Amino acid sequence: MLNFLPAPLIGVLSFIGYAVNTIALTIPLICLSLLKFILPVKGAIVILDKVLIGIATLWISINGMNSRLFNDIHWDVRGLSQLERKEWYLVISNHQSWVDILVLQKVLNRKIPMLKFFLKKELIWVPFLGLAWWALDFPFMKRYSKKFLAANPHLAGKDLESTKKACEKFKHTPVSVMNFVEGTRFTPEKHRRQSSPFAHLLTPKAGGIAFVLGSMGDYLHKIVNVTILYPGKTPNFWEYISGQVDEIIVDIDVTPVDPALKGDYFQDPEFKEVFCDWLNQMWQDKDEKLAKLGAGQKKAAFTTAETA
Hints:
Elements: H1 7-38, H2 42-70, E1 74-78, E2 89-93, H3 99-108, E3 115-117, E4 119-120, H4 129-135, E5 140-141, H5 146-151, H6 158-166, E6 176-180, H7 188-194, H8 206-216, E7 222-229, H9 237-241, E8 247-256, H10 269-307
Parallel strand pairs: 1-8, 2-6, 2-7, 3-6, 4-5
Antiparallel strand pairs: 7-8
Helix pairs in contact: 1-2, 1-4, 6-8
C-alpha cells in the first residue's frame, strides 16, 4: 500500500500503471482479433472469443490491483450475492463521473460476464480501441435521426434490425450490456437545465434501454440496477487515481426482465408510455435510495464525531 505518498506522485505512478497495463494487453488483443478474419470458422471464433474476454478480464483485474496499491478506499458494496457469471444481464446505473466506469468494472469483474457497451458505428474507426471493441464483440449500432428517416422512410427499423443481427452472437455466450440511462454525467448545472424531477439524478432516457431490450429481449434475462454514491464529493479521474477518495458505496439490485418491457418503443405509443412509467418509477426509487444512503453516511459521521 503506497497511499502514504504525496497525492501528485501517487497520481503519476498510478497513471503509468494504467497506461502500461493498457498498452501491454491491447497489443495481444488486437493481434488475436486479426485471426477472426483469417479463421472465420465458428469453433475457432468461439475459442478466440474466450481468450479475448480473458485478456480483457485480466486487464480489469490488474487495474484493480493498481487501485489497491495506491488507494486506501473503503468499499461498501451491497448485493453482490445476487450475481452469477453464467447469466445474461442488462446493467444500468446512475452516472456522476468517468470514475463510475472504473468502479463498475472493479466491483462487477468476475462476478458477471464482462460489461459491454452499445457503441456508435463510427467509433469502430478509433485507432486501436475500435478494433479492440470489435474483437470483444461490443455491438456497433447505426442510429438514424428523425429528419433522415423522414427523407428515407425505407430505412425505418434498419438500425434495430442490424443491431439484432450483431447481437445474435450473444445467444450462446452470457453477456452484460451496460447503459448509463441518464445519457450524461450528473452536474448541478445539467440538473437545473433539465428541471429534473429527481433530487439526485438527471431525467432518464428510455430510448437507449428500450433499444437494447428490443434488440436482445430474447437473451437478456435480468436487470442489474446499480446505484453509486461517493460520500462527500464526486471525484474526477485524477482524484481517484491519486488516492483522494476515501469511500465508495455501491448498491446492487437484480430483477428479472418483465416480458411486458419487450415491445416496439419507437412505433407503439402505448408501449412507450408504459415503458417510460416503469423507468421513471425505477428512477424515483433510486433517487430515494441515494437520499437514504447519503443521510446514513451523514448520521454515521455525526455519531463518530460525537463519540470522539
